[in-house]
Design goal:
Rossmann fold; 2 domains; 7-stranded parallel beta sheet; alpha/beta; single chain; 15 helices
Length: 378
């Protein structure tokens, strides 16, 4: 029986983010022969996978952050009042391997422990994109630049020091392979294909975008859709509606609501919106990892318009399963094409569902993850 410690930045439930869904899918796919010590933050005591040990991040003052070479995102865990207790619990469990899901919780790993890093993103790259693309004052810009440089330095150290790394997108895996100078496996996020096998009742002109609307890459995408793509669509005669579906919409997102834009906020069941959508759009210009929204749309049978970067990260570039949206005109043409061509829409729907079942179901993705884990158990 292999003894595994599983430390996650976030709990697996509720299923309101891609991070949580990945953790839930991994834990729901554990094969026989593993004994797990599950460590998550406070606040999730019930559900299918309750924690064995909990923790709370610490408070970090600006002064502490200023004089530290460690980025704030790790300092909160380095300074956690529970850190010594977590380290002791891990040592007492005497694991064969510690799985660290999310870079943030590396401070909870005892010295000398063998670590498999389950990477959700290239974290420093997200910080760099935030610095480059989000408007801010000069002082805030300087702070963001320093922060992502600190994070880059520390992330590279951790990635190189880990026993192994699993990336959740092909592009991330290629990057980590170059950093470690060895092959890094790509295990994508998965989706519950049975749950998303829904009846389709697409309404003419309905375009869907979904995601956590407090997450900057999603905010950036929605502003691009509403301020650039929709005006162009309207000039071509589109009279439909964009539905932006996701929790925690910022005020800047709420302000976009209009006759042609619906902002839902948190919803009980996303499936009714995927059922109504004629097409799903994900013009993600910022971010890394596996775009869960895209494989969810595929599993639900919704035709997808997205960027070549996203298609490449999923390993489906040039397959014809998704339509391209790298440039503004291209995005508008792709949306109109799939909304005006029922045969094409049906073809994309069938191909997307088939690939989601074949490659992105949790029975496949979860099994692949635990196969990687077995490679690092002595």
């Amino acid at each position: 029986m292999a003894r595994i410690v599983f430390i996650s930045t976030f709990p697996p439930e509720p299923l309101m983010s891609g991070f949580a869904m990945r953790i839930f899918g991994i834990l729901d796919s554990i094969p026989d022969g593993f004994e797990l010590l599950k460590i998550y933050p406070e606040g999730m005591q019930d559900g299918k996978f309750p924690p064995d040990v909990t923790f709370a991040p610490g408070a970090v003052s600006r002064m502490r952050e200023f004089f530290s070479l460690t980025p704030r995102t790790l300092l909160k865990y380095n300074d956690s009042p529970d850190r010594s207790r977590i380290i002791k619990a891990v040592e007492q469990f005497n694991p064969d391997l510690v799985i660290v899901s999310g870079i943030h919780v590396f401070p909870f790993v005892p010295s000398g422990a063998r670590v498999l890093y389950d990477s959700h993103n290239i974290e420093w790259h997200l910080g760099m994109l935030l610095y480059k693309h989000q408007r801010a004052s000069v002082l805030v810009k300087i702070h963001r630049h320093i922060t992502y440089m600190k994070l880059r330095r520390r992330e590279l150290q951790l990635v190189r020091s880990a026993e192994g790394v699993v990336a959740c997108s092909k592009t991330d895996a290629d990057y980590f392979s170059s950093v470690r100078e060895e092959h890094v496996a790509f295990v994508p996020n998965g989706v519950d294909t049975d749950y998303w096998d829904i009846p389709r009742e697409p309404q003419p002109g309905v375009i869907l975008f979904s995601g956590d609307m407090s997450y900057f890459p999603n905010i950036n995408s929605v502003h691009f859709i509403t301020q650039e793509i929709l005006p162009l669509l309207k000039s071509y005669g589109w009279t439909g509606k964009l539905i932006v579906c996701g929790k925690n919409p910022s005020q800047s997102i709420r302000s976009l609501e209009s006759d042609s834009v619906m902002i839902t906020g948190t919803v009980d069941d996303l499936r009714k919106y995927y059922s109504r959508a004629e097409v799903f759009i994900a013009p993600m210009r910022i971010g890394s990892g596996t775009p869960l929204k895209v494989i969810t749309a595929m599993a639900a049978g919704v035709p997808v318009v997205t960027t070549s970067r996203i298609a490449e990260s999923l390993g489906i570039l040039d397959t014809g399963i998704v339509l391209q949206a790298d440039q503004l005109e291209e995005a508008a043409r792709s949306l109109l094409k799939v909304m005006n061509d029922r045969a094409l829409a049906d073809q994309c729907s069938r191909a997307g569902k088939s690939l989601a079942c074949e490659k992105f179901s949790w029975s496949v993705a979860g099994g692949s993850f635990w196969k990687q884990v077995k490679k690092f158990i002595r």
